[in-house]
Specification:
The chain has helices at about 1-15, 20-30, 45-50, 55-75, 85-100, 110-120, 150-165, 200-205; strands at about 105, 120-125, 130, 140-145, 170-175, 180-190, 195, 210-215, 220-225, 225-230, 235-240, 245-250, 250-255. Helix content is about 45%, strand content about 20%.
């Protein structure tokens, strides 16, 4: 944690200068090469962070900085007042956007570019827009946050990669859509769906990963000692045509605490 705190101090003192970007880039490489740890994650979760790519690692660093910065500021200015989630979320979004633009990971006209490069939009839900060209091995998603903070939205990608490596998400950039929502642009392997999984097949899959039904979500929410899985309904879990096993393509995943 000492290294990340040093970077935060540099950002606070110098702003998003070229030197600061280089320091963040160096720290990203240290994490990717296994020479530094990101202390909020255990070993398998840390692997999920690395699988998500350098943009995910960098955004996670910035989100942590934003949380530490606003918490410290609130404690100094308001007699130990804890900042509200919306305040944390706003600062995280602002700083991630600033960093992404400075790091050349931002695209203003993503919908037009993704359609031209990756094919038409084939699906749209509350969280993601999905683009796919017939025959490609991956889909591209524009994913917005349905979590209380952007840090939790980034964590969700890390935790998905940890739990479901066969459909790992790799972040390639950031954007805003036509509605003004900031979105994470990511790739994910295309799953050739034989059919939707049954409740029993989903139960068996998640229980093998240490989860149990939390009895609070009509059979689609699960919990372990560390993590919570939500929205595990059949539309998010396919039976793969090749392996004939259930594969989770999307869900809500977060830390219990």
């Amino acid at each position: 944690m000492e290294r990340i705190e040093l970077i935060f101090k540099m950002i606070a003192k110098e702003g998003f200068t070229a030197l600061t970007l280089q320091e963040i880039d160096n720290y990203i490489k240290e994490i990717q090469h296994g020479r530094e740890d990101f202390s909020r994650f255990n070993l398998s979760e840390h692997a999920g962070l690395c699988k998500g790519g350098a943009p995910l690692i960098g955004a996670s660093i910035i989100a942590c900085y934003a949380t530490a910065s606003i918490t410290a500021g609130s404690n100094v200015e308001s007699c130990q007042r804890s900042p509200a989630n919306w305040e944390i979320d706003e600062l995280q979004e602002k700083l991630i956007e600033q960093w992404a633009k400075a790091a050349k990971l931002w695209e203003d006209n993503s919908e037009q570019i993704l359609t031209a490069k990756f094919g038409p939009m084939i699906a749209q839900g509350a969280e993601a827009k999905v683009y796919y060209h017939e025959g490609d091995i991956s889909v591209v998603k524009e994913r917005t946050s349905i979590y209380s903070t952007w840090q939790k939205a980034l964590d969700a990608i890390v935790l998905h990669n940890c739990l479901f490596p066969e459909t790992e998400m790799k972040v390639i950039g950031f954007t805003r859509d036509s509605d003004g929502l900031m979105r994470i642009v990511l790739t994910q392997p295309y799953v050739n769906c034989e059919r939707l999984a049954t409740k029993e097949e989903i139960d068996e899959m998640v229980m093998a990963k240490g989860f149990r039904d939390n009895w609070n979500g009509q059979g689609v929410n699960y919990i372990s000692d560390r993590l919570a899985l939500e929205d595990m309904h059949p539309a998010n879990v396919f039976i793969d045509k090749i392996t004939e096993k259930p594969i989770c393509i999307d869900c809500i995943v977060k830390f219990v605490k």
